[in-house]
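Question (not urgent): is this output format expected?
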Amino acid sequence: MKKIMLPIMSAVVVVSTLISSQASAATTTFKDVQANHWAKSAIESAVSMGYFKGYGNGLFKPNASVTRAEFASLISRVAKDMTLPEDAQTDSFKDLNGHWSKAEVDRAVTLGFINTKEYPNGFKPSTPITREEMAKWLSSGLVASSAEYKTAFAETKGTLLPVKESFKPGIAQDKIPYLAVAMGTNLMNGFPDGSFGMDKTTTRAGIFCYFVTSRKCTEKRSYDI
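Got this back:
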């Protein structure tokens, strides 16, 4: 495992073990996450480990879309053991001044997950992140972590991806490598209907179900990611 993949997968293994052994005595509960909610264990375990937070009023909003700020914070926290260079970013986006996610977005930028040039009009932290953006961020982080992933990224140009969008309406050539790396490392998968859903968003519950348990949940809503 390369240095970015390792912290991501290590976190997955640790939390998955806690869940499966029922050793995670999560103390955080939310009024809108019922006892029979399909992602309850994943949500509570992830929150207890500091990967995500509720809204401070007893709500988690499991069906709300994950925002750019939230996903940036998630990957930044999962990669918390990575050492930042001396020239770490401290002011990546002007529209983040005073925003709760600023430090973690700056960290995600420094680690190579986010390219500031992709957001010339500002980060717009409350914007729901698309699956295409998620694939790009995750793949960019891997490419920044090692020459091997950089080579793999270059070699996937022109690849025919096993998703519906490859045939109709087609996927722009410059987007293919990001999707290929994200899918090839199993960090992201397609939907049951064979599509990738590039413009689709992801719910807060869905993202935890996938990243925290490292497997699909028992209900079809787990395909949110």
